[in-house]
Amino acid sequence: MSKSSLLPLETITHRILLLREQKVLLDADLAMLYGVETKVLLQAVKRNLERFPEDFMFQLTNHEFNVLRSQSVTSSSEALETLRWGGRRTAPYAFTEQGVAMLSSVLRSERAIQVNIEIMRAFVRLRQMLTTNAELSRKLTALEKKYDIRFKAVFEAIHDLMAPAETKKKRPIGFAPWEKK
Fold it and tell me: What is the pLDDT along the chain (181 residues), one digit of tens a residue?
């Protein structure tokens, strides 16, 4: 966190969700970050709806709302905790990165400007992390092609370590029968 940073990067990144294949922040989380009530944030948005097309902001469907509610047990998101405990009657709004950027033109306080800067940095950081991961994978594939069979076992071990636990092959437990010669 830099000296001018209002919020730690982790405070923001833990609230970013993946919905409809987009990274979004929920209205209640944004309101908390901006230091306003959710209804105040939504009133400002509704007064300026022309600035928020569907690719900037959307309201969750009942199904998405219910799925989020059921998943909120493990989340640190304020918005999801509110969903879980029934503090809300309508489905929340989700703001994409562009929608969050547009909020800075609607919410004009000094805090809103600083929070927006931090949120934009969080989105950039997530993109950099995804790019780095993809780049490492490409480099490993290139190395595999470059080196011969001598290193095949090393690359297999690395791939095995990178694979999720549920896709790894399990060896049977116990003793195998003696082979007949």
Answer: 444 456 777 788 888 888 998 889 999 999 998 888 999 999 999 999 999 999 999 999 988 888 887 776 555 555 655 555 556 778 899 999 899 988 888 887 888 888 888 888 888 888 787 777 777 777 777 776 776 666 677 777 777 777 766 655 566 666 766 666 5
What are the sequence ranges of the domains in the chain? Answer: 9-132
What's phi and psi for 94, nearest 5 deg? -115, 135
Over the range 143-172, which residues count as b (16 or more CB within 10 Å of their CB) and which as e? eeeeeeeeeeeeeeeeeeeeeeeeeeeeee
CB atoms under 10 Å from CB of 66, counted, come to 13
8 Å CB contact between 15 and 81: no
